[in-house]
Amino acid sequence: MVEKIQNRLWSIRKRVEKRRKVRLLIQTNKKYDLSTIPVWKLPENTDRSALPVYEIDFYTIFGVHVDLNDVNWHKDYVSGFEYPVEQFDKIRISRWYDKGIDIKFPWEASRFYFAVPLAQNYRVTEDEAYYIRFRDLVQNWIKKNPFLYGVNWHCTMEVAIRAVNWIVAVNLFGDRCIRDENFYRSIVASLEQHARYIDAFPEIKKNGTANNHLVADYFGLLFLAVTLRDHPEAGKWLRTSTEGLVHCIQTQVNDDGTSFEGSIPYHRLVLEMFGYAAILCKANNIELPVGYYERLFTMFEFTAAYIDHNGNAPQIGDNDSSRSLIFHDSDEHDHSYLLDIGEHLFNYRFLSQCQNRNYKYVCWLPEIEKIMLM
């Protein structure tokens, strides 16, 4: 009984604190004249003409095709239910639990996994249609999801993954995006809101423990801090995100490189985020401690051990197919690209029975000086 009362009181305090922070975000919604810093700079003179062009008229979510020309960002397309566009802290999504309604449908659509393939298509073909599709989708999302309103502002992890996909896509579109002044100003302003939201609401649990959600929060804040480097809060965001990622890799990853959550798919998710964060830091002269890289190295070693000769991973533990950035089209069980990320970071070839390697994958990653641990 005492524990129940304590939990109830903690829940009430969290709710009061959240509403206080929401009021503060609304009151301090100052407009800044910001620009983004190129942070995901691709190697010069790389021939991408032979790379695949992705068909992206529809985006598939849980087996359902969503027409990208007409996305309802608040809709669960399976049940047909639309979540209300109310201030996010007043939406209690638990009201719709066990009613055949899934919040993950609008969240998945709003992660913008399709942004990077659109930008890749543009880099390969120089076809303006891919940029226009990206611009229209982002503008539509911003219009239909005002700051702090709707379920797509309800979970910090979702805010973070969306921000990272926007940032990398903007980097891949390059000058084409910057020349589009009205759109550029609007997406930069929204990214600033994403950063302030993540900084206000990191997903730290009651007892101080954390999971892949908190990794995603710091991952997103890192990309935003580096991108919005001229923002007065950027220095604080950078310290919060780098220190947070270091703490997460030390506490969530075991000495043998396995995830404390006991799930191969979640290992893949957090390894993507820890790995891409390291690449971003190396590409932008941001220092991470040696211990971070040592623990990251063991994660790649574990991956090299569990994938089969085709690069497929065993299904062990929970799996919601979550990703951070998706640079190539492959089966969700194919984890072979993780070795490509590892070998892009480290001056080392990971020993594995996997024969399925995609060396063109790294042409979408910034050139960095490889890490030597041995």
Structural write-up:
With 374 residues, this protein is mainly alpha-helical. The protein has a domain at 41-202. It has helices at 2-27, 104-110, 115-125, 128-144, 156-173, 175-179, 181-200, 212-227, 234-252, 264-283, 290-306, 337-345; strands spanning 58-61, 64-67. It has a two-stranded antiparallel ribbon with strand order 1-2. Strand 1 and strand 2 form a beta hairpin. The protein is globular, with a radius of gyration of 20 Å. The N and C termini lie far apart (54 Å).
Topology, pairings included?
Blueprint: H1 2-27, E1 58-61, E2 64-67, H2 104-110, H3 115-125, H4 128-144, H5 156-173, H6 175-179, H7 181-200, H8 212-227, H9 234-252, H10 264-283, H11 290-306, H12 337-345
Antiparallel strand pairs: 1-2
Helix pairs in contact: 3-4, 3-5, 4-7, 5-7, 5-8, 7-8, 8-9, 8-10, 10-11, 10-12
Q: What labels describe this entry?
A:
374 residues; two-stranded antiparallel sheet; globular; mainly alpha; 2% strand
Brief account:
The chain has helices at 2-27, 104-110, 115-125, 128-144, 156-173, 175-179, 181-200, 212-227, 234-252, 264-283, 290-306, 337-345, and strands spanning 58-61, 64-67.
Share of helix, binned: 40-55%
| Proportion of strand residues | under 5%
Average pLDDT taken over every residue: 91
Counted beta strands: 2
Measured on Cα atoms, how large is the radius of gyration? 20 Å
Order of helices and strands: HEEHHHHHHHHHHH
Total helix count?
12
Q: Report, as a whole number of angstroms, the end-to-end distance.
A: 54 Å
| Class from secondary-structure proportions | mainly alpha
Strand order of the largest sheet: 1-2
Ranges where pLDDT stays below 50 over 5 or more residues in a row are none
The backbone outline, from C-alpha atoms, is: globular
**What is the makeup of the main sheet?**
2 strands, antiparallel
